[in-house]
Amino acid sequence: MQIKESPKVYDVCIIGSGAGGGMAAKTLTEGGAETIMLEAGPDFDSAQGDMFRWPYQSPRRGAGTHRPFGEFDAAYGGWEIEGEPYTRKNGTSFDWFRSRMLGGRTNHWGRISLRFGPYDFKRRSIDGLGDDWPISYDDVKPYYDKIDKMIGIFGSVEGIKNEPDGIYLPPPKPRGYELLIKDGCENLNIPIIPNRLSILTQPLNGRAACHYCSQCNRGCSTHSNFSSPSVLIPPAKATGKLTIVTGAMAREIITNNEGVATGVSYVSKEDGQEYVVRAKVVVVAASAAESARLLLNSKSSRHQNGLSNSSGVLGKYLMDSTGASMSGIIPKLIDGIPHNEDGVGGAHLYIPWWLNDAKLDFPRGYHIEIGGGRRMPSYGFGGGIERNNKMLGELDGAPRASGGGYGQQLKEDYRRLYGARVGFAGRGEAIALESNYCEIDPNVVDKWGIPVLRFHYKWTDYERLQAKHMHDTFEEIIHSMGGIPSGPKPGPETEYGLAAPGRIIHEVGVTRMGDDPKKSVLNKYCQAHEANNVFVVDGGSFVSMADKNPTWTILALSLRTSEYILDQMKQGNIKS
After folding, report:
1. d(CA 386, CA 336)
2. Please, what are the domains in the chain?
3. Which of 89, 277, 327, 410 could form a disulfide with 423 if both were Cys (CB 3.0 to 4.6 A apart)?
4. Of 528, 499, 458, which Cα lies nearest the Cα of 97?
5. Does pTM surpass 0.85?
6. What tens digit of pLDDT does each residue of 126-183 get?
Protein backbone atom coordinates (compact mmCIF):
# COMPACT_ATOMS: atom_id res chain seq x y z
CA MET A 1 0.00 0.00 0.00
CA GLN A 2 1.39 3.38 -0.98
CA ILE A 3 2.13 5.82 1.84
CA LYS A 4 0.23 9.08 1.49
CA GLU A 5 2.25 12.19 2.28
CA SER A 6 0.70 15.53 3.16
CA PRO A 7 1.55 18.28 0.67
CA LYS A 8 1.57 20.87 3.43
CA VAL A 9 4.56 21.40 5.72
CA TYR A 10 3.39 22.39 9.20
CA ASP A 11 5.48 24.41 11.63
CA VAL A 12 4.84 21.84 14.35
CA CYS A 13 3.44 18.31 14.60
CA ILE A 14 2.30 17.31 18.10
CA ILE A 15 1.77 13.64 18.93
CA GLY A 16 -0.71 13.29 21.79
CA SER A 17 -3.35 15.63 23.20
CA GLY A 18 -3.19 15.25 26.99
CA ALA A 19 -1.53 17.55 29.52
CA GLY A 20 1.73 17.96 27.60
CA GLY A 21 0.25 17.93 24.12
CA GLY A 22 -2.66 20.20 24.97
CA MET A 23 -0.42 22.78 26.64
CA ALA A 24 1.97 22.68 23.68
CA ALA A 25 -0.93 23.17 21.24
CA LYS A 26 -2.27 26.18 23.12
CA THR A 27 1.10 27.84 23.55
CA LEU A 28 2.45 27.19 20.06
CA THR A 29 -0.69 28.17 18.14
CA GLU A 30 -1.12 31.34 20.19
CA GLY A 31 2.52 32.05 19.33
CA GLY A 32 1.67 31.83 15.63
CA ALA A 33 2.81 28.29 14.77
CA GLU A 34 0.77 26.36 12.20
CA THR A 35 0.23 23.10 14.11
CA ILE A 36 -1.13 19.62 13.46
CA MET A 37 -2.00 17.28 16.34
CA LEU A 38 -2.15 13.48 16.02
CA GLU A 39 -4.34 11.64 18.55
CA ALA A 40 -4.70 7.85 18.64
CA GLY A 41 -8.23 7.93 20.08
CA PRO A 42 -11.52 9.56 19.09
CA ASP A 43 -12.69 13.13 19.64
CA PHE A 44 -14.03 13.87 23.13
CA ASP A 45 -15.70 16.77 24.91
CA SER A 46 -16.47 16.29 28.58
CA ALA A 47 -19.52 18.56 28.26
CA GLN A 48 -21.15 15.73 26.32
CA GLY A 49 -20.42 13.07 28.93
CA ASP A 50 -22.58 11.10 31.36
CA MET A 51 -22.37 13.31 34.45
CA PHE A 52 -25.99 13.13 35.50
CA ARG A 53 -27.01 9.56 34.69
CA TRP A 54 -27.92 7.36 37.63
CA PRO A 55 -26.14 4.03 38.21
CA TYR A 56 -29.37 2.14 37.53
CA GLN A 57 -29.42 3.63 34.03
CA SER A 58 -26.43 1.51 33.06
CA PRO A 59 -27.51 -1.40 30.84
CA ARG A 60 -24.86 -3.47 32.59
CA ARG A 61 -25.85 -2.50 36.15
CA GLY A 62 -22.16 -2.38 36.96
CA ALA A 63 -21.54 -5.98 35.88
CA GLY A 64 -18.72 -5.23 33.47
CA THR A 65 -18.12 -2.34 31.13
CA HIS A 66 -16.27 -1.29 28.01
CA ARG A 67 -14.58 1.45 30.06
CA PRO A 68 -11.80 0.80 32.59
CA PHE A 69 -13.31 2.67 35.56
CA GLY A 70 -17.05 2.25 35.16
CA GLU A 71 -19.87 2.63 32.69
CA PHE A 72 -20.11 6.42 32.89
CA ASP A 73 -16.50 7.38 33.57
CA ALA A 74 -14.71 9.61 31.06
CA ALA A 75 -12.07 7.03 30.14
CA TYR A 76 -11.52 5.21 26.87
CA GLY A 77 -8.66 2.74 26.88
CA GLY A 78 -7.28 0.75 29.79
CA TRP A 79 -4.53 -1.60 30.85
CA GLU A 80 -5.55 -4.10 28.20
CA ILE A 81 -6.72 -2.91 24.76
CA GLU A 82 -7.77 -5.30 22.03
CA GLY A 83 -5.24 -5.26 19.22
CA GLU A 84 -2.70 -3.27 21.26
CA PRO A 85 -0.68 -5.79 23.27
CA TYR A 86 2.48 -5.29 25.27
CA THR A 87 4.71 -7.89 26.88
CA ARG A 88 6.70 -8.42 30.06
CA LYS A 89 10.24 -9.72 30.45
CA ASN A 90 11.76 -12.34 32.80
CA GLY A 91 8.60 -12.80 34.85
CA THR A 92 8.47 -9.17 35.94
CA SER A 93 5.29 -7.13 36.10
CA PHE A 94 4.24 -3.77 34.72
CA ASP A 95 0.61 -2.92 33.94
CA TRP A 96 0.56 -0.26 31.23
CA PHE A 97 -2.47 2.04 31.02
CA ARG A 98 -3.21 3.69 27.67
CA SER A 99 -5.85 6.41 27.36
CA ARG A 100 -7.23 6.51 23.84
CA MET A 101 -9.22 9.76 23.51
CA LEU A 102 -8.71 13.45 22.82
CA GLY A 103 -7.22 14.82 26.03
CA GLY A 104 -5.94 11.46 27.22
CA ARG A 105 -5.75 10.94 30.96
CA THR A 106 -6.64 14.56 31.73
CA ASN A 107 -10.26 13.51 31.22
CA HIS A 108 -10.33 11.02 34.08
CA TRP A 109 -7.53 11.84 36.54
CA GLY A 110 -8.10 12.84 40.16
CA ARG A 111 -6.99 16.46 39.49
CA ILE A 112 -4.64 16.46 42.48
CA SER A 113 -2.37 19.27 41.33
CA LEU A 114 0.81 19.33 43.40
CA ARG A 115 4.00 21.17 42.56
CA PHE A 116 7.29 19.32 42.90
CA GLY A 117 9.37 20.94 45.64
CA PRO A 118 12.98 22.18 45.78
CA TYR A 119 14.15 18.88 47.26
CA ASP A 120 12.46 16.88 44.49
CA PHE A 121 14.76 18.23 41.80
CA LYS A 122 17.95 17.56 43.80
CA ARG A 123 17.34 14.26 45.59
CA ARG A 124 20.72 12.71 44.75
CA SER A 125 22.41 15.61 46.51
CA ILE A 126 20.31 14.80 49.58
CA ASP A 127 20.36 11.00 49.82
CA GLY A 128 22.83 9.86 47.16
CA LEU A 129 20.27 7.86 45.16
CA GLY A 130 19.34 8.35 41.51
CA ASP A 131 20.29 11.61 39.81
CA ASP A 132 19.60 15.30 40.22
CA TRP A 133 17.59 17.07 37.55
CA PRO A 134 19.51 19.54 35.34
CA ILE A 135 16.97 22.17 36.44
CA SER A 136 15.81 23.42 39.84
CA TYR A 137 12.49 24.41 41.37
CA ASP A 138 13.34 28.06 40.65
CA ASP A 139 13.54 27.23 36.93
CA VAL A 140 10.02 25.76 36.95
CA LYS A 141 8.30 28.05 39.48
CA PRO A 142 7.35 30.80 36.97
CA TYR A 143 5.57 28.21 34.86
CA TYR A 144 3.75 26.70 37.85
CA ASP A 145 2.57 30.24 38.61
CA LYS A 146 1.35 30.71 35.03
CA ILE A 147 -0.66 27.49 34.93
CA ASP A 148 -2.19 28.19 38.36
CA LYS A 149 -3.60 31.41 36.93
CA MET A 150 -4.42 29.95 33.51
CA ILE A 151 -6.13 26.73 34.61
CA GLY A 152 -7.28 27.43 38.17
CA ILE A 153 -6.55 25.47 41.34
CA PHE A 154 -7.92 25.65 44.85
CA GLY A 155 -5.85 25.25 47.99
CA SER A 156 -4.31 27.12 50.91
CA VAL A 157 -0.96 28.74 51.64
CA GLU A 158 0.71 26.61 54.31
CA GLY A 159 4.49 27.18 54.15
CA ILE A 160 5.28 23.46 54.49
CA LYS A 161 8.82 22.36 53.66
CA ASN A 162 9.10 20.93 50.14
CA GLU A 163 5.36 21.44 49.52
CA PRO A 164 5.44 24.67 47.51
CA ASP A 165 2.41 26.89 47.78
CA GLY A 166 0.68 28.12 44.65
CA ILE A 167 -1.77 30.80 43.55
CA TYR A 168 -5.03 29.44 44.88
CA LEU A 169 -8.76 29.83 44.66
CA PRO A 170 -10.62 29.31 47.98
CA PRO A 171 -10.87 25.63 48.97
CA PRO A 172 -14.26 24.05 49.76
CA LYS A 173 -15.08 23.39 53.40
CA PRO A 174 -14.25 19.92 54.76
CA ARG A 175 -17.05 17.38 54.96
CA GLY A 176 -18.05 15.81 58.28
CA TYR A 177 -16.03 12.60 57.93
CA GLU A 178 -13.04 14.66 56.78
CA LEU A 179 -13.18 16.67 59.98
CA LEU A 180 -13.06 13.41 61.96
CA ILE A 181 -10.00 12.33 59.96
CA LYS A 182 -8.48 15.74 60.64
CA ASP A 183 -8.99 15.28 64.38
CA GLY A 184 -7.40 11.83 64.20
CA CYS A 185 -4.37 13.17 62.33
CA GLU A 186 -3.89 16.11 64.65
CA ASN A 187 -3.85 13.72 67.62
CA LEU A 188 -0.81 12.12 65.97
CA ASN A 189 0.85 15.41 64.89
CA ILE A 190 0.31 14.49 61.24
CA PRO A 191 -0.48 17.55 59.09
CA ILE A 192 -3.69 17.51 57.09
CA ILE A 193 -4.51 20.51 54.92
CA PRO A 194 -6.95 21.61 52.20
CA ASN A 195 -6.45 19.63 49.03
CA ARG A 196 -4.94 21.20 45.93
CA LEU A 197 -7.22 20.33 43.03
CA SER A 198 -7.56 21.90 39.58
CA ILE A 199 -11.29 22.45 40.01
CA LEU A 200 -12.78 25.96 39.98
CA THR A 201 -14.46 27.21 43.16
CA GLN A 202 -14.86 30.61 41.49
CA PRO A 203 -15.41 31.51 37.81
CA LEU A 204 -12.14 31.87 35.91
CA ASN A 205 -11.22 32.82 32.35
CA GLY A 206 -14.75 32.27 31.04
CA ARG A 207 -15.30 28.95 32.84
CA ALA A 208 -17.98 28.51 35.50
CA ALA A 209 -17.36 27.51 39.09
CA CYS A 210 -17.93 23.89 40.12
CA HIS A 211 -21.57 23.16 40.90
CA TYR A 212 -20.67 20.35 43.35
CA CYS A 213 -22.18 17.38 41.56
CA SER A 214 -19.12 15.35 42.66
CA GLN A 215 -18.90 13.53 39.30
CA CYS A 216 -15.50 14.80 38.12
CA ASN A 217 -14.57 11.29 37.01
CA ARG A 218 -17.28 11.57 34.33
CA GLY A 219 -15.95 14.78 32.80
CA CYS A 220 -17.63 18.13 33.39
CA SER A 221 -20.59 19.65 31.54
CA THR A 222 -19.48 23.18 32.55
CA HIS A 223 -15.73 22.65 32.04
CA SER A 224 -15.20 23.61 35.68
CA ASN A 225 -12.48 21.04 36.25
CA PHE A 226 -9.28 20.78 34.26
CA SER A 227 -8.95 18.62 31.20
CA SER A 228 -7.08 19.34 28.01
CA PRO A 229 -10.25 19.36 25.80
CA SER A 230 -11.91 21.77 28.25
CA VAL A 231 -9.13 24.28 28.89
CA LEU A 232 -6.24 23.96 26.43
CA ILE A 233 -7.53 22.73 23.08
CA PRO A 234 -10.44 25.23 22.64
CA PRO A 235 -8.20 28.33 22.70
CA ALA A 236 -5.76 26.55 20.36
CA LYS A 237 -8.62 25.86 17.94
CA ALA A 238 -9.76 29.47 18.23
CA THR A 239 -6.48 30.66 16.69
CA GLY A 240 -7.38 28.89 13.44
CA LYS A 241 -3.89 27.36 13.44
CA LEU A 242 -4.65 23.90 14.89
CA THR A 243 -5.54 20.84 12.82
CA ILE A 244 -6.48 17.71 14.79
CA VAL A 245 -6.34 14.22 13.32
CA THR A 246 -7.99 11.60 15.54
CA GLY A 247 -7.64 7.84 15.21
CA ALA A 248 -3.98 8.32 14.23
CA MET A 249 -1.55 5.67 15.52
CA ALA A 250 1.92 7.21 15.26
CA ARG A 251 4.41 4.73 13.82
CA GLU A 252 7.70 6.64 13.68
CA ILE A 253 9.35 10.03 13.39
CA ILE A 254 10.84 10.42 9.92
CA THR A 255 14.37 11.87 9.74
CA ASN A 256 16.62 12.92 6.87
CA ASN A 257 20.25 12.02 6.17
CA GLU A 258 21.41 14.54 8.75
CA GLY A 259 19.24 12.94 11.44
CA VAL A 260 16.85 15.88 11.58
CA ALA A 261 13.10 15.19 11.84
CA THR A 262 11.07 15.97 8.73
CA GLY A 263 7.70 14.57 9.78
CA VAL A 264 5.72 11.77 11.37
CA SER A 265 4.35 8.53 9.94
CA TYR A 266 1.00 7.32 11.30
CA VAL A 267 -1.60 4.67 10.55
CA SER A 268 -5.22 5.78 10.30
CA LYS A 269 -7.59 3.60 12.32
CA GLU A 270 -10.36 4.59 9.92
CA ASP A 271 -8.93 3.15 6.70
CA GLY A 272 -5.74 1.31 7.77
CA GLN A 273 -3.72 3.53 5.42
CA GLU A 274 -0.29 4.86 6.39
CA TYR A 275 0.18 8.62 6.12
CA VAL A 276 3.11 10.98 6.58
CA VAL A 277 2.69 14.47 8.01
CA ARG A 278 5.53 16.84 7.25
CA ALA A 279 6.62 19.34 9.90
CA LYS A 280 9.56 21.56 10.83
CA VAL A 281 9.33 20.62 14.53
CA VAL A 282 8.00 17.44 16.18
CA VAL A 283 6.64 17.58 19.73
CA VAL A 284 6.10 14.17 21.31
CA ALA A 285 3.49 13.99 24.08
CA ALA A 286 2.01 10.52 23.73
CA SER A 287 2.53 9.63 27.46
CA ALA A 288 5.92 8.54 28.73
CA ALA A 289 6.08 4.89 27.66
CA GLU A 290 4.22 5.47 24.38
CA SER A 291 6.63 8.28 23.54
CA ALA A 292 9.59 6.00 24.28
CA ARG A 293 8.03 3.39 22.00
CA LEU A 294 7.75 5.93 19.19
CA LEU A 295 11.36 7.08 19.57
CA LEU A 296 12.66 3.49 19.80
CA ASN A 297 10.78 2.63 16.60
CA SER A 298 12.21 5.70 14.83
CA LYS A 299 15.38 4.07 13.50
CA SER A 300 17.53 5.33 10.64
CA SER A 301 21.15 5.36 9.52
CA ARG A 302 21.78 8.29 11.89
CA HIS A 303 19.64 6.86 14.71
CA GLN A 304 20.40 3.16 14.60
CA ASN A 305 19.15 2.42 18.14
CA GLY A 306 16.18 4.74 17.97
CA LEU A 307 15.89 8.52 17.82
CA SER A 308 18.30 10.26 20.25
CA ASN A 309 19.43 6.95 21.73
CA SER A 310 23.16 6.64 21.07
CA SER A 311 23.46 6.67 24.89
CA GLY A 312 21.26 3.57 25.20
CA VAL A 313 19.27 5.35 27.91
CA LEU A 314 16.01 5.63 25.94
CA GLY A 315 13.34 3.50 27.65
CA LYS A 316 15.32 3.16 30.89
CA TYR A 317 14.63 4.57 34.36
CA LEU A 318 10.92 3.82 34.11
CA MET A 319 9.03 4.85 37.25
CA ASP A 320 5.50 4.66 38.63
CA SER A 321 4.26 5.99 41.96
CA THR A 322 4.10 3.55 44.82
CA GLY A 323 0.60 2.91 46.10
CA ALA A 324 -1.03 1.23 49.08
CA SER A 325 -4.45 1.60 50.70
CA MET A 326 -6.50 0.73 53.77
CA SER A 327 -10.04 1.41 54.92
CA GLY A 328 -11.72 1.34 58.30
CA ILE A 329 -15.12 1.53 59.97
CA ILE A 330 -15.58 4.48 62.32
CA PRO A 331 -18.17 3.84 65.08
CA LYS A 332 -18.90 7.58 65.38
CA LEU A 333 -20.23 7.45 61.82
CA ILE A 334 -22.45 4.37 62.29
CA ASP A 335 -26.19 5.07 62.18
CA GLY A 336 -25.36 8.39 60.57
CA ILE A 337 -28.11 10.84 59.81
CA PRO A 338 -28.65 11.30 56.04
CA HIS A 339 -27.19 14.66 55.06
CA ASN A 340 -25.86 16.59 52.10
CA GLU A 341 -22.15 16.14 51.41
CA ASP A 342 -21.77 18.83 48.78
CA GLY A 343 -18.37 19.18 47.28
CA VAL A 344 -16.04 18.56 44.39
CA GLY A 345 -15.32 15.15 42.91
CA GLY A 346 -12.53 14.36 45.32
CA ALA A 347 -11.42 14.85 48.91
CA HIS A 348 -11.36 18.37 50.32
CA LEU A 349 -8.33 17.53 52.51
CA TYR A 350 -5.10 15.60 52.02
CA ILE A 351 -1.98 14.69 53.99
CA PRO A 352 1.33 15.97 52.56
CA TRP A 353 4.61 14.21 53.39
CA TRP A 354 5.63 15.32 56.85
CA LEU A 355 8.83 13.38 57.64
CA ASN A 356 11.49 15.00 55.44
CA ASP A 357 13.90 15.23 58.38
CA ALA A 358 13.11 11.86 60.01
CA LYS A 359 15.46 8.87 59.98
CA LEU A 360 13.48 6.05 58.33
CA ASP A 361 14.34 2.66 56.85
CA PHE A 362 13.43 3.83 53.32
CA PRO A 363 14.26 6.93 51.24
CA ARG A 364 11.92 9.64 49.96
CA GLY A 365 8.27 9.80 51.01
CA TYR A 366 4.57 9.78 50.12
CA HIS A 367 1.39 11.79 50.47
CA ILE A 368 -1.97 10.41 51.62
CA GLU A 369 -5.29 10.80 49.86
CA ILE A 370 -8.45 10.31 51.92
CA GLY A 371 -11.96 9.15 51.12
CA GLY A 372 -15.29 8.27 52.68
CA GLY A 373 -18.77 9.68 53.03
CA ARG A 374 -22.28 8.66 52.12
CA ARG A 375 -21.56 7.12 48.75
CA MET A 376 -23.10 4.14 47.04
CA PRO A 377 -22.19 1.18 49.30
CA SER A 378 -20.04 -1.63 47.95
CA TYR A 379 -20.31 -5.28 48.97
CA GLY A 380 -18.83 -5.79 52.41
CA PHE A 381 -17.92 -2.10 52.87
CA GLY A 382 -14.28 -2.87 52.23
CA GLY A 383 -13.86 -5.56 54.83
CA GLY A 384 -15.90 -8.51 53.64
CA ILE A 385 -19.35 -9.48 54.90
CA GLU A 386 -17.90 -11.88 57.51
CA ARG A 387 -15.66 -9.27 59.11
CA ASN A 388 -18.30 -6.54 59.12
CA ASN A 389 -20.82 -8.99 60.57
CA LYS A 390 -18.36 -9.87 63.36
CA MET A 391 -17.66 -6.19 64.02
CA LEU A 392 -21.35 -5.31 64.27
CA GLY A 393 -21.83 -8.20 66.67
CA GLU A 394 -19.02 -6.88 68.85
CA LEU A 395 -20.50 -3.38 68.82
CA ASP A 396 -23.97 -4.71 69.71
CA GLY A 397 -22.65 -7.11 72.34
CA ALA A 398 -24.53 -9.96 70.66
CA PRO A 399 -22.54 -12.29 68.34
CA ARG A 400 -24.01 -12.78 64.88
CA ALA A 401 -24.34 -16.05 63.06
CA SER A 402 -21.54 -16.88 60.66
CA GLY A 403 -22.10 -15.99 57.01
CA GLY A 404 -23.59 -12.52 57.34
CA GLY A 405 -27.16 -11.37 57.53
CA TYR A 406 -29.88 -11.58 54.93
CA GLY A 407 -33.30 -10.10 54.32
CA GLN A 408 -34.36 -7.43 56.79
CA GLN A 409 -31.22 -7.88 58.93
CA LEU A 410 -28.96 -7.29 55.93
CA LYS A 411 -30.85 -4.11 54.96
CA GLU A 412 -30.58 -2.76 58.49
CA ASP A 413 -26.86 -3.52 58.64
CA TYR A 414 -26.25 -1.73 55.37
CA ARG A 415 -28.15 1.31 56.57
CA ARG A 416 -26.11 1.36 59.78
CA LEU A 417 -22.79 1.10 57.95
CA TYR A 418 -23.67 3.43 55.07
CA GLY A 419 -21.27 6.37 55.38
CA ALA A 420 -19.30 4.84 58.26
CA ARG A 421 -16.28 3.81 56.22
CA VAL A 422 -13.19 5.95 55.57
CA GLY A 423 -10.27 5.13 53.32
CA PHE A 424 -6.63 6.10 52.90
CA ALA A 425 -4.37 5.76 49.86
CA GLY A 426 -0.65 6.49 49.86
CA ARG A 427 1.11 7.74 46.75
CA GLY A 428 4.88 7.73 47.05
CA GLU A 429 8.19 8.09 45.30
CA ALA A 430 10.04 5.12 43.83
CA ILE A 431 13.76 5.32 43.15
CA ALA A 432 14.75 5.68 39.48
CA LEU A 433 16.69 2.56 38.43
CA GLU A 434 18.30 1.74 35.10
CA SER A 435 17.09 -1.86 35.56
CA ASN A 436 13.45 -0.75 35.28
CA TYR A 437 12.81 -0.17 31.60
CA CYS A 438 10.76 -0.69 28.46
CA GLU A 439 12.12 -1.85 25.12
CA ILE A 440 10.80 -2.96 21.75
CA ASP A 441 9.68 -6.59 21.71
CA PRO A 442 11.43 -8.10 18.68
CA ASN A 443 8.63 -10.58 18.00
CA VAL A 444 5.31 -8.79 18.61
CA VAL A 445 3.46 -6.07 16.72
CA ASP A 446 0.05 -4.48 17.23
CA LYS A 447 -2.89 -4.74 14.84
CA TRP A 448 -1.42 -1.92 12.73
CA GLY A 449 1.94 -3.66 12.40
CA ILE A 450 3.75 -1.36 14.84
CA PRO A 451 6.29 -3.11 17.15
CA VAL A 452 5.10 -3.11 20.77
CA LEU A 453 6.80 -2.50 24.11
CA ARG A 454 8.22 -5.12 26.44
CA PHE A 455 8.52 -4.12 30.11
CA HIS A 456 10.95 -5.11 32.84
CA TYR A 457 10.10 -3.72 36.29
CA LYS A 458 10.69 -4.74 39.90
CA TRP A 459 10.00 -3.02 43.19
CA THR A 460 12.86 -2.91 45.68
CA ASP A 461 12.93 -2.99 49.48
CA TYR A 462 12.86 0.81 49.39
CA GLU A 463 9.33 0.73 47.97
CA ARG A 464 8.19 -2.26 50.05
CA LEU A 465 9.25 -0.62 53.31
CA GLN A 466 7.58 2.60 52.21
CA ALA A 467 4.32 0.68 51.71
CA LYS A 468 4.72 -0.87 55.17
CA HIS A 469 5.09 2.61 56.64
CA MET A 470 1.96 3.70 54.76
CA HIS A 471 -0.09 0.89 56.31
CA ASP A 472 1.30 1.55 59.79
CA THR A 473 0.27 5.18 59.40
CA PHE A 474 -3.20 4.35 58.07
CA GLU A 475 -3.77 2.01 61.01
CA GLU A 476 -2.62 4.63 63.52
CA ILE A 477 -5.00 7.22 62.08
CA ILE A 478 -7.95 4.81 62.08
CA HIS A 479 -7.24 3.84 65.70
CA SER A 480 -6.84 7.51 66.61
CA MET A 481 -10.36 8.02 65.26
CA GLY A 482 -11.63 5.17 67.43
CA GLY A 483 -12.12 3.03 64.34
CA ILE A 484 -11.56 -0.55 63.28
CA PRO A 485 -9.41 -1.37 60.21
CA SER A 486 -11.28 -3.33 57.54
CA GLY A 487 -9.11 -6.39 57.30
CA PRO A 488 -5.65 -7.45 58.47
CA LYS A 489 -2.59 -5.41 57.63
CA PRO A 490 -0.63 -6.93 54.69
CA GLY A 491 2.77 -8.43 55.38
CA PRO A 492 5.98 -9.16 53.47
CA GLU A 493 4.43 -12.11 51.64
CA THR A 494 2.28 -9.60 49.71
CA GLU A 495 4.95 -6.89 49.48
CA TYR A 496 3.13 -5.04 52.27
CA GLY A 497 0.15 -4.42 50.00
CA LEU A 498 2.15 -2.48 47.42
CA ALA A 499 0.17 -1.91 44.24
CA ALA A 500 1.52 -3.61 41.12
CA PRO A 501 3.83 -1.37 39.06
CA GLY A 502 1.82 0.69 36.59
CA ARG A 503 -1.44 0.51 38.53
CA ILE A 504 -1.18 4.07 39.85
CA ILE A 505 -0.89 5.27 36.21
CA HIS A 506 1.96 7.70 36.86
CA GLU A 507 4.61 6.26 34.54
CA VAL A 508 7.44 8.70 33.91
CA GLY A 509 11.15 8.80 33.23
CA VAL A 510 11.92 6.85 30.05
CA THR A 511 13.15 9.83 27.99
CA ARG A 512 14.94 11.55 30.87
CA MET A 513 16.53 14.99 30.64
CA GLY A 514 20.14 15.73 31.52
CA ASP A 515 23.16 17.84 30.63
CA ASP A 516 25.24 14.84 29.49
CA PRO A 517 24.09 13.31 26.17
CA LYS A 518 25.81 10.06 27.17
CA LYS A 519 23.47 9.66 30.15
CA SER A 520 20.21 11.22 28.95
CA VAL A 521 17.85 11.54 25.97
CA LEU A 522 16.81 15.18 26.29
CA ASN A 523 18.41 18.44 27.43
CA LYS A 524 16.97 20.69 30.12
CA TYR A 525 14.44 22.12 27.64
CA CYS A 526 13.10 18.62 26.81
CA GLN A 527 14.89 18.85 23.44
CA ALA A 528 16.41 15.69 21.95
CA HIS A 529 20.20 15.77 22.18
CA GLU A 530 20.57 14.22 18.72
CA ALA A 531 17.76 15.94 16.79
CA ASN A 532 17.25 19.53 17.85
CA ASN A 533 13.82 19.84 16.25
CA VAL A 534 12.36 17.00 18.35
CA PHE A 535 10.95 17.67 21.84
CA VAL A 536 9.24 15.42 24.44
CA VAL A 537 6.76 17.18 26.74
CA ASP A 538 5.08 14.40 28.72
CA GLY A 539 6.34 12.69 31.89
CA GLY A 540 9.12 10.92 30.01
CA SER A 541 11.57 13.76 30.73
CA PHE A 542 11.37 13.25 34.51
CA VAL A 543 14.61 12.34 36.28
CA SER A 544 12.78 11.36 39.46
CA MET A 545 9.11 10.96 40.38
CA ALA A 546 8.61 12.80 43.72
CA ASP A 547 5.88 12.04 46.25
CA LYS A 548 3.45 14.14 44.22
CA ASN A 549 1.21 13.45 41.25
CA PRO A 550 3.02 14.38 37.99
CA THR A 551 0.41 16.30 35.96
CA TRP A 552 1.09 19.84 37.23
CA THR A 553 4.80 19.38 36.51
CA ILE A 554 4.08 17.96 33.03
CA LEU A 555 1.99 21.07 32.30
CA ALA A 556 4.66 23.45 33.63
CA LEU A 557 7.49 21.78 31.69
CA SER A 558 5.42 21.66 28.49
CA LEU A 559 4.69 25.39 28.80
CA ARG A 560 8.39 26.09 29.41
CA THR A 561 9.45 23.96 26.44
CA SER A 562 6.80 25.43 24.13
CA GLU A 563 7.90 28.98 24.88
CA TYR A 564 11.49 27.87 24.25
CA ILE A 565 10.48 26.37 20.86
CA LEU A 566 8.85 29.64 19.79
CA ASP A 567 11.93 31.60 20.83
CA GLN A 568 14.32 29.24 19.05
CA MET A 569 12.20 29.21 15.89
CA LYS A 570 12.23 33.01 15.78
CA GLN A 571 16.02 33.02 16.18
CA GLY A 572 16.43 30.35 13.49
CA ASN A 573 18.23 27.99 15.88
CA ILE A 574 16.15 24.90 15.12
CA LYS A 575 17.22 22.86 12.09
CA SER A 576 14.47 21.56 9.82
Report:
1. 22
2. 1-54+73-111+114-152+226-320+432-457+505-576 (3.50.50.60)
3. 327
4. 499
5. yes
6. 999 999 999 999 999 999 999 999 999 999 999 999 999 999 999 999 999 999 999 9
